[in-house]
Amino acid sequence: MQYIPLMSFRDNSIDSILAQLAALAARPLDQAHAMPPEVYTSEHFLERERERIFRGGWVCAGRTDSLRSAGEYFCFDVDSQPVFVVRQKDGSFSAFANVCRHRMMTLLKGQGKCKRIVCPYHAWTYDVNGALLNAPHMDSRSEFDQTALGLHPVRLEVWHGWIYLTLNNDAPTVDSLLEKLSPLVAPYQMEHYVQILEEDHVWDTNWKQLTENFMEGYHLPVAHKATVGGYFPVEATQFAAVPSPGFTFQFFEKTTEAPVGTAHPDNKTLRGKQRVTSVMPTVFPSHMYVLAPDHLWYLSLQPQGVSQVKIRYGIAMAPEVLETCEDPDKLIADTAAFLWQVNEEDRVVVEGIHKGAHAPLSTSGPLCWLERENHEFAQYLAAQLCN
Ligand code: FES
Ligand SMILES: [Fe+2]
Known about the structure:
The protein has 387 residues and is of the alpha+beta class. It folds into two domains: 69-155, Rieske Iron-sulfur Protein (3-layer Sandwich); 174-385, Naphthalene 1,2-dioxygenase Alpha Subunit, Chain A, domain 1. The chain is 25% helix and 25% strand.
């Protein structure tokens, strides 16, 4: 019997992990492996990701359709920075640090609608445009410049109905980063899709294991055999001809028997094969969505440590689907329940592989051609982290 050595002698230093990642990223796809387990378990590696990726790049906070009227807001953390996004009277969107300028109390929670933002600690009050309107009992100070104490703005960009945020004022625009993705998603007109659900969840896995799971269709016929597995002919998967550094995507077709995922008869913009084709972009690092002719669902991830990830999860439907439906409430409930069942199937596997990554005998194995985007993700991470 072959003796399998315990892996406790592994070099878990950040330098060793980065060197392994760089070597992996340099391989062609047909020699690629999954990333080494330490990439998913090292606190030092996570700290580097936080600094360079989550504080240095763009993250998606949600969709504009979540904020339909002035004063509506939702909260989102950009790494350790609490932020809220709010709709202005002129219809534009703004983001601010969700932290009071007095003694740093966090201001808003969850989502809602407000005319003013009142700090729950000492009632400093802000306009939705961030200006400080009132600060009780501060007039006895010899100097108090209310105009200099507005909420700190956070950079925001809207792209095809998505709201992206960054703490990095020097980051290139989302528009420039996703220039080549734009023509692929534009025919679906997803900015008009009507949001029917948005929720936050926490799963026990590393954020990258969930990203990788999303990107590869290899698991669909197996892990999702009880739900969507039978409707995806995975051999028909088409990838990007030339990978782009900021994102990756694939196209896949649905069989005509699929209960959802094909164009509604009232959809007059998608033609031919497009009507049964979905595009599945992953915008690095952590925004991913399935954009089908009749609906979309998405995830935006935020690490909560190496072994937990916070997921903003949402579903939206093409307007013609809801407009022509006899019982939209039932359709919405059924769609949400079905997609949640698919999510649960994913949760089982991504929590399982995370447990595996912590195990001393674990080693990463070779990738299948259907996991091509996982290798592109490793190359993206190496470019961000290994220099
Ligand atoms: S911390 Fe906000 S008013 Fe004091
Ligand atoms: Fe899945």
